[in-house]
Amino acid sequence: MIAEFGLVALWLAAALAGLQLVAGFFGMREGGEQVAALARPAALVQALLCGLSFLALIYLFATTDLSVKLVAANSHSAKPMIFKLAGTWGNHEGSMLLWITVMALAGGLIAALERRLPERTMLATLGAQGFLALGFYAFILFTSNPFERLPLPPVEGNGLNPLLQDIGQAFHPPNLYVGYVGLSVAFSFVVGALLTRQVTPEFARVMRPWVLGAWVFLTIGITAGSYWAYYELGWGGWWFWDPVENAALMPWLAATALLHSVSVLAARDALRAWTVMLGVVAFSMSMVGTFLVRSGILTSVHAFAVDPERGSFILMLLALYIGGALVLFATRAGTVAEGERFSILSREGALVVNNVALSAILGIVLLGTLYPLLTEAFDVRVSVGPPYFNPVAAIFFLPMLVVLAIGPLLRWRGDSFARIRIPVIILAAIAVVTLLAVWLLADIDLLPLLGLALAAMVAVGSVLPLRGRSLRRLPIAVWGMVIAHLGVAVALFGMAADTAFQQERLVAASVGDVIEDGPWQVELRSVKPVAGPNWTAIEADLGLTYKGAPAGEAKPQARSFWSPPTETSEVALVTRWNGQLYAALGNQAEDGRWQLRLWWKPFVTWIWYGGLLIALGGVLSIIGRVSGDLRRRVAARKIADRKADEEALAAGAGA
Amino acid sequence: MKGLRYFLWGLVALAAGLFGLFAYQLTQPKDEFVESAMIGQPIPAFDLRPALESQPGLSSADLADGQPKLVNIFASWCVPCRAEAPQLETLRDSGAEIVGIAIRDRPEDVAAFLQVYGNPFTRVGADDISEVQLSLGSSGVPETFVVDGNGVITYQHIGDIRPEHVPGILARLREAGA
User: Fold this and answer.
1) Where in the numbering of this chain does the Cytochrome c assembly protein domain appear (chain A) (predicted)?
2) Of B9, B26, B79, which has the smallest distance from its Cβ to A330's Cβ?
3) Which of A266, A445, A457, B169 gets the most CB atoms within 10 Å of its CB?
């Protein structure tokens, strides 16, 4: 019953998306007032129905209803409840339902609350949002029905991929989807603004919280995903330039450029074409990423069920939406006039550099990700990895960091070099001194060396905008910027320090052996079997000493899950403020010794602290912007009230 | 403004090219795995001691005796190897000759493993340092190679053999001349 109920709700939601599309696009024409009135209610009811459909699926997973194919294929009655629930979206069908649910909720939210834009633009936006949603509903209903029943229910479910049986992983995909959906809302606003030729600062202000929100979620998603790969895959790296990682990185790069661009448009009415283009590109990248991951067209460590039919369907949607938006933009290019002018040495100028650099990095990552696909068409199999991505992306990333340190010091419209000479000299001195000091003291590669120098420079540069200002009266959005930029410096420091100074030991150890790794001494005290709810493992007991002082213990495991049979490496991490000891247990050699892999990774955790700081900056920025918008709205209402009062008074006096 | 318009139409063309590439690749059959560079090559020379007391070991000469064979790379400590054991039995019952290479294993463990999960092998060699495994271009356990009667590798199957893989592997074996 519940499965059928969920399916019916989903079909009805799809029908309402169709209604929203018609009401939006026809309502914005002249004489369309009657249908126009349906657009907002359609979006609201659609959100409700889609939400119910998703709740139905959660219920089926919670009760392990094995007559539903998706539950039987992905769940197991012995699984802990939290992972049963997470199993709802830990698979292709469920994750697509979650995606469309978030999308429907976002559509409902705009329909209910957003009143600042001209109503025609809003209708066009809602129409575009309905159009997007309809495509995704069609995708789910025709290729990936999550509520499909089995003729004969099995006795037991097929488990969840143990690699995904992890609390972090349970919340990782939803987080990314919220980010993608935020970008889809921004995209709808862009389409609405293009259709009604209203690329205005007001449009930018309305779009900004969605872009910021999407960007915060994507930032958290990438940070968490990087940490997940770090401790779950057991390879000790934090970024592999894997296609799935790139699929998440590309929309983030576009969203980062977009949020800077949208701020310029809101504040200065400049960078209109940039904002529109980045709005289209950011959503395109989230779709391209989804396509690459779900179609199985590229090979990756992050396995998803692969089905060429689904791939073709997403590709059709991709061509329809992205192609359509680009053509629309090209035909409307004339109406997206340039906006306000500015000199090269200005805040706007620095942000254009930022946009160009981020777009270039995006292009580089896209090219690297798709290159194997391109050469495969000519029967050459290649794999593109860090030797390409690192140096080529650095060519744009490193100069961008210099601009990041200096840009916030510049004034809008135009500035003179003389005014910012002193801080620029200080920043340059910091970079040069750090570079020389590290170069003299340690023998490390060029990229991490530059990274350390620029991290120091950006760290100081990011707090310079606070200079000479009252910290208590500083707008929250400025705090957001400062903290986010500081986060970039912190993350960069972590990456460079780990790359430059990590120490790895791979040994075959017998019980009782002591291994040295950097400042650590690790004693293999024992190796014994342990059992969990649905796995068994071999666990090593490691006694640790840091610089001669006892520093606790670490217990890495080699775990075997039995449903489905899979082996994973549960690494043990010992975190200090200045880094992490990373221990992974391997196989037993025939002479009874155990393979043990130890890394001392100085300051590696700063990468993720930095990522969280960047996200925190985004959150502060949202709070600052939204409260600013609300204040402005209250002020506007007061002025309108007073005007009405005065008019009433004048009318009374006249009578 | 003209520049922007040209740029945008360029972008449309680029997107169209990209979608074309995607569409083309979607229609291509997809090989999930990194193939061994050894496919089509004669098997490298090796001579492994027996992994069991009851059965002979394996050398490269045994693989060039005119009879196509399956070479199964396995280990007693490998869980997916247990999962594929019934399929190896099916393959043997369908007439395939299967030889095994036990990776980093002890004779008593191999014997116990084959006792519990069945022994489909005519010969089992012991590869204590993964030397032969690596020279075959195999990077994990289990993997299975099809070798023709002249000792040339014609096919590689990565990962455990599931029931649905059995017909394909038998077909490969027939192509190799069985």
Assistant:
1) 89-295
2) B9
3) A457
